[in-house]
Amino acid sequence: MSVLHIVNRSPCESRSLELCLARAAAGDTVLLIENAVYAAMRDSIAARQIETALGRIAVCVLEPDLAARGFAAAAPLEGIARIDYAGFVELSVAHRAALSWC
Amino acid sequence: MKFAIQVNSSPYQSQASATAYQFVETALRKGHQVVRVFFYHEGIYNGLHDAASADDDWSIARCWSALAKDHDIDLVLCISAAQQRGLPVAETAGHTGKAESNVAEGFHLAGLGQWVDAIITADRVVSFGG
Fold it and tell me: How far from B75 is each of A8, B48, B81, B89, CA to CA, in Å?
């Protein structure tokens, strides 16, 4: 059973991404939204953790939240897919459960 | 596909309710069904009628109300969460579903049973904020 993990806090203010990456199983997807999009940037505090996890799980970032923080033109870490709200809905359909990490 | 949505944060505190609104709006546009949006904990502040704000101020409550009107979505404010936060709720509100004057159009007050009913009916449950 694959799970969509939704993380909304910056790795600088919360351990939720770290805990989520430790818990996510192979085939799961981690979606970074709201302040968690900072984790997707190159050289972010969570970059190495994400790069280590990328072979096992998929990681996506919500494009409108990147744009809202001034990162519309910035390139996220290699291997992270940028998605819009339609992509968010599709991910929640494609996984059997959605888990929000707060 | 049928979605049940839970919103746990105040619109004045975090981005979560705006994210939830955009998710619901997109899901409907893509042909999915939203069984119920349940506003829990601080999320109840999404559904208060903000009589004091100017008409041209952006208001999440008005956005939800318009969405409920256009798509016939059930917007439920948790009655216990509302009472705990001092919202004057008539004893009978839970039974009649009649909103008090400070509850925005399209929302009604009900208990956790409505959330349980929604997650039983829905194919997917997505929660925002908390």
Answer: 23, 12, 15, 17
